[in-house]
Amino acid sequence: MFSALGVDYGTNSVRALVVDCATGAELGSAVVDYPSGTQGILLDKNDHHLARQSPSDYLHGLERAIRAALAQAAGKPGFSPSGLIGIGVDTTGSSPLPVDASNVPLALDPKWSRNLAAQCWLWKDHTSYQEAAEITKLAAKHRPEYIAKCGNTYSSEWFWSKIWRCLKVAPDVFDATFSWVELCDYIPSVLAGVTDPSQIKRGICAAGHKALFSDEWGGLPDREFLELLDPLLAALRDRLYDEAHDATVSAGSLCEAWAKKLGLPAGIPIAIGAFDVHFGAIGSGVKEGVLVKAIGTSTCDCAVVNAGKKIADIPGICGIVKGAILPGFYGIEAGQSAVGDIFKWWVEGVCEGNAAAHRKLEEDAAAAKPGQSGLLALDWNNGNRTILVDPLLTGLLVGQTLYTTRAEIYRALIEATAFGARAIIERIEQYGVPVTGVVCCGGIAEKNKLLMQIYADVIGSRIEIAGSSQACALGSAVVATVLAGSKKGGYDTFPEAQARMTKLNPVSYTPDPVRKKTYDELYRIYRQLHDAFGGQTGAVPLGSVMKDLIQLKQKVSA
Amino acid sequence: MFSALGVDYGTNSVRALVVDCATGAELGSAVVDYPSGTQGILLDKNDHHLARQSPSDYLHGLERAIRAALAQAAGKPGFSPSGLIGIGVDTTGSSPLPVDASNVPLALDPKWSRNLAAQCWLWKDHTSYQEAAEITKLAAKHRPEYIAKCGNTYSSEWFWSKIWRCLKVAPDVFDATFSWVELCDYIPSVLAGVTDPSQIKRGICAAGHKALFSDEWGGLPDREFLELLDPLLAALRDRLYDEAHDATVSAGSLCEAWAKKLGLPAGIPIAIGAFDVHFGAIGSGVKEGVLVKAIGTSTCDCAVVNAGKKIADIPGICGIVKGAILPGFYGIEAGQSAVGDIFKWWVEGVCEGNAAAHRKLEEDAAAAKPGQSGLLALDWNNGNRTILVDPLLTGLLVGQTLYTTRAEIYRALIEATAFGARAIIERIEQYGVPVTGVVCCGGIAEKNKLLMQIYADVIGSRIEIAGSSQACALGSAVVATVLAGSKKGGYDTFPEAQARMTKLNPVSYTPDPVRKKTYDELYRIYRQLHDAFGGQTGAVPLGSVMKDLIQLKQKVSA
Questions:
Q1: Average pLDDT of A117-135?
Q2: How many angstroms away from the CA of B157 is the closest CA of chain A?
Q3: Using CB atoms within 10 A as the burial measure, which of A554, B102, B269, B537 is most buried?
Q4: CA atoms within 13 A on the CB side of B449
Q5: Burial, A504: exposed, middle or buried (Cβ in 10 Å; 0-12, 13-18, 19+)?
Q6: How many helices (H) and strands (E) does chain B have?
Q7: Which residue on chain A is closest to B337 by alpha carbon?
Q8: Is-contact A428 A334, C-beta < 8 A?
């Protein structure tokens, strides 16, 4: 039996998954929570924009998760470590971390281990919003082509914003850093035993989506542009990289040291790393016309368009990068800054409820009809990633009476995220990217039936669920299997590999025409609030918002 | 010892208070909760606008509360029932109830006792918002003078809206009704043994503020106008009243039957009834220049201006009625539709907390600085009474992040009600009514120190607290004492009676200049939202709201 290993770094934990290359069947799986901070995240109570992670948590989790998954696989008939033909890695991103000249994270040095700036700057860290705005401004003036493919807005969640911020607020950390590495490039480099940052194989997914890397302008932003930001960033450029690769290239092979730690033979090929959702899209069966939505703490939407076609720049979209998902295709990324995180905030943070309370809320919320609560929310508690690209936006709830319940607010928050999802689909369709099907993956998509039905009703399209609960890790395994190729027991193409190794869940959600009609009306009001508070348009008349919600409430309650 | 009895009908309970006429000192006091419905209110789960009350609860409470208060007073040296020189009554309003030709509430007849339309239509019932809008429209066209003194808007909380609504939705109840009586007129008529509705002495407070009664146009609205609403309302006019009285007139004297029930001598003079807050203003020492705010489930603001002066019509104010508070003065009434109710909704309804949880929230909220949460709310969960006069408006909360706490939201809701209070004061000052001092009364004013300090900081004025916890009942007793006059052991003028019988609490609240400055900035943003969602102006640009709140947050946190 040939098998492949996928490793998936999420926001709160890391998963390892061993799958059968013939069927995609799970042979072993393990999850390890990051031990540090609040659910694995290092926070600053004076700045809710800050979110860092400890690199030692990553290494701790890497070893334990893989060993546990392999131990489980070892019990399966036919499995043998010698049949493991490849390792794939996906992570959150943009989550860059500073390393020294030996490719060791600064944070592992006791000198820096307690310095928040020396940790990994987690994707959801929004401290660098001023830097992002400045990069957007400078690029618009001097290098408009740099940001044309990422919706004309550079984000505070991305590589250069974060590094520039570090340079400003923690110059000592910046000075001590040799290079900055995306987590998705760092983990493969660790497994491959890379001890020189210049030897790290960087992936086009992170480079193209977050670091303004493109062959069109010869790689990373040029020195002249970076000097406009800070001469020290221009100097850093030389210690970064000139090439970035898609999934046809290998990141190296398993080194002796990690082979020993993991109980595996050395030399197993390691795939180029990418972001979780990009490989999750592969594990969910992404192909042209199918939008894959990974619904987790935040949401990421992925679509692919054949690279032979001409593709328009799409305002407000996170990025369009050739090879970022499937080789030979443009990968299109969009997303919402918070989805599961908003529900978690409401249920655990405000209502102080546990898992049982969450189920009760879902039950109560499911009993209501769309529009019946008279509530409407904006899903911006963590800013808006797509289509407004503004990390400073905040949440809003309107329509409360003296009888509004926590379950009604919970439902309004789900609906808000569904409206945000619809805004993304409408935007990419408007620019010529067809969306004929939607496949959702992630725990929320599998477990929260109310949410999925609301998404189907709001989006107005049938929604499928990925067949694997670990679509990202499975996608990483698929990438590793294709990298190995048919001669080594894998596959030579992605469609072949996806056909054999991925499947859909038998459960799917079909829009109800009556609910969809109500949601069309609510979505119109949502867009009024969205445009007014998003500042996209000038003055939007909002005097009718509360009345329109009441009218809708009366109509649906009648 | 001469004593007086004040009876105060609140939203959830009735209180009786026996006081010493020489000092205002409390001799006996008792509260009886209304037994029916949800905390005394009959609700309809399909219509959150509906709020009714059972007249039998009123009678049940009247007897028990007075007997218990008298029993307590009986233990005090010098007290004797024969020294009781008067009875005053105040109630919520506009709370009209339908009675038959014998002045018996329809709801006491088993035939109607379960019919919600046959009950008392509690002040906070907002079911008749369409009727209110129609009355406003017709008056603006045909009788602009009718609504010039009530801010050019007739409210869904008021007499004619409610009766017209009853006629539309429950014509059988309307047909069976001989007359409609405000609760504040009904209770004195019960005590006086009035069995013919045409003999009820109606008070100018309810008549002038809620029923469009004015001597300027010969009493109630004329038949021709009422016919525009419905000919049946024009016919009802004949069974209502032609005269309405201020506190110089008596409503009758204690009848034999009720004297027996209460254990009092028959014949004690009963004062004209008025709304709770109007008499509460008297009990709090209202005089020209002093605004009295009664802070309870909702808030009512009262001011007086010498009737010898010319007074402008004030847009958005509930009413300006000569004699409604003190004889010889215009009474000005304004208010917020929900204050305590909003906190109750948040703490009990959403957070599902008890009294201890409420104290914890107050503690946590008190630890924060103004502006620090980045939150801003509109205080419209029960509509907006002053200055927008729109019962359909709903609540709004903006600025939530993933770290927003329930205590921060609680504080934002308090601040929202403070901003609403400031909007009222600014409006009446703008129209020439001086506000040189503010006196607050009610349980919230006495107990919630955080709220009072926020009010002082937001309003920017020192705030005093009424000396009596039962300012309304005390005010009713003061009115009864002045009605009795000095010859019977009372006083001949209100200033004399107020000087002897009312006092201020030693605790008062002074604005902090730093906090006031932050609140000035927050109030500016509040008004942006207020004007936009209140629909008073056309399109208001709101794109900066979330950013302005974040900037303020950063400034105050620095």
A1: 96
A2: 16
A3: B269
A4: 6
A5: middle
A6: 20, 21
A7: A402
A8: yes
Q: CB–CB of B341 and A402 under 8 A?
A: yes
Interface test with B, best of A400, A411, A551, A555 (most B CBs within 10 A): A400
Residue of A nearest to B44 (CA): A403
Angle of helix A355-366 relative to helix A449-459, nearest 10 degrees, comes to 40
How near does any CA of chain A get to the CA of B535, in Å?
Answer: 4
Q: Which is nearest to B366 in space by CA: B424, B408, B313, B427? A: B408
The 10 Å Cβ neighbour count of residue A297 is 24
How far, CA to CA in Å, does B237 sit from each of A448, B160, B226, B306?
59, 11, 8, 31
**Distance of alpha carbon A55 from alpha carbon A108, whole angstroms:** 7
d(CA A81, CA B346): 57
Please state the length of chain A.
558
- Sign of the four-CA dihedral B87, B88, B93, B98: positive
Q: Which chain B residues have a beta carbon less than 8 Å from that of A532?
A: 532, 541-543
Give the gap in angstroms from C-alpha B6 to the nearest C-alpha of chain A: 31
Below-70 pLDDT ranges, chain B: 537-538
User: How close is the nearest chain A Cα to the Cα of B344, in Å?
Assistant: 8
Written as six digits, the tokens of A305 are 């368009």
Cβ atoms of B51 and B132 within 8 Å: the answer is no
Q: How far apart are CA B374 and CA B550, in angstroms?
A: 6
Q: Give the whole-angstrom CA distance, residue A102 versus residue A80.
A: 33
CA atoms within 13 A on the CB side of B55: 31
From chain B, pick out residues whose CB is under 8 angstroms from the CB of A401.
48, 381-382, 394-395
Cα B522 to Cα A396, A453, B337, B371, B528: the distances in Å are 16, 39, 21, 7, 10
Rounded to a whole number, what is the distance in Å from the CA of A533 to chain B's nearest CA? 4
Q: How far apart are CA A319 and CA A329, in angstroms?
A: 13
For A353, nearest residue in chain B (alpha carbons): B351
ipTM: 0.85
User: Over the stretch A4-26, which tens digit does the pLDDT of each residue have?
Assistant: 999 999 999 999 999 999 999 99
CA distance linking residue B62 with residue B194, whole number of Å: 16
Residue B120 is predicted with a pLDDT of 98
Number of other CB atoms surrounding residue B439 within 10 Å = 26
Cβ–Cβ below 8 Å for B543 and A557: no
Q: Is the backbone of residue A18 left (phi > 0), alpha (psi -120 to 50) or beta?
A: beta
* A351, A382, A397: residue with CB nearest B397: A397
Residues pairing with B245 in the sheet: B203
The angle at the Cα of B276, spanning B311 to B85, to the nearest 5 degrees, equals 105
Residue of B nearest to A378 (CA): B398
Is residue A210 within 8 Å of residue A251, measured between CB atoms? no
Burial class (CB in 10 A: 0-12, 13-18, 19+), A533: buried
Question: Which residues of chain B does A541 touch, with a Cβ-Cβ cutoff of 8 Å?
Answer: 532, 538-540
How far apart are alpha carbons B60 and B422 in whole angstroms?
39
Residue A260 is encoded by which pair of tokens?
Answer: 């020993």
How many Cβ atoms from other residues are within 10 Å of residue A42's Cβ?
21
Does A394 contact B374 at a Cβ distance shorter than 8 Å? Answer: yes
Longest dimension (CA), chain B: 71
pLDDT per position as a tens digit, A477-519: 999 999 999 999 999 999 999 999 999 999 999 999 999 999 9
A194 secondary structure, DSSP code: -
A322 DSSP assignment: E
Backbone angles phi, psi at A17, to 5 degrees: -140, 125
Report yes or no: A138 and A224 within 8 Å, Cβ to Cβ: no
Query: What is the tens place of the pLDDT at every residue in B73-101?
Result: 999 999 999 999 999 999 999 999 999 99
- CB spacing of A381 vs B374 below 8 angstroms: no
